[in-house]
């Protein structure tokens, strides 16, 4: 039950991260109001990091910003470490 909830949560947060990243890219192209970087990073921290990184690379968005190209892989690494620690505790 817990694993099903976790998988559903990660799928939903990943989908939200992808959509928000694409919306920010389209807003940048249209020179409209952008999604704050804090929002993008928060979605990454909440579990959308892998989906966001893949999306960023595919649509070439924020790839010149070190905050994202170092920060999101660092978030992924921390998340993987936490998952491994949690798995060992079970």
What is the percentage of strand-forming residues? under 5%
Structural class: mainly alpha
- Strand count, sense and closure of the main sheet? none
Order of helices and strands: HHHH
Oligomer: single chain
Please tell me what the overall shape is.
elongated
Number of helices: 4
* Low-confidence region ranges: none
The residue-averaged pLDDT reads 96
Q: Could you give the distance between the termini?
A: 15 Å
According to DSSP, the number of beta strands is 0
Rg value:
14 Å
Q: Can you give the helix content as a percent range?
A: over 70%
What is the count of distinct domains? 1
Task: Please give a structural write-up.
- By secondary structure, this protein is mainly alpha-helical.
- The chain has one domain.
- It is 82% helix and 0% strand.
- The protein has four helices and no strands.
- It has helices at 2-29, 37-59, 66-69, 71-89.
- Helix 1 packs across helix 2 (37-59) and helix 2 (37-59) packs across helix 4 (71-89).
- The protein is elongated, with a radius of gyration of 14 Å.
């Amino acid at each position: 039950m817990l694993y099903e909830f976790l998988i559903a949560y990660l799928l939903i947060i990943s989908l939200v991260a992808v959509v928000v990243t694409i919306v920010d890219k389209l807003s940048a192209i249209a020179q409209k109001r952008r999604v704050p970087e804090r929002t993008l990073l928060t979605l990454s921290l909440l579990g959308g990091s892998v989906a966001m990184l893949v999306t960023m690379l595919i649509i070439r968005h924020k790839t010149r910003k070190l905050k994202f190209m170092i920060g999101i892989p660092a978030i992924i690494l921390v998340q993987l470490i936490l998952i491994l620690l949690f798995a060992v505790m079970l």
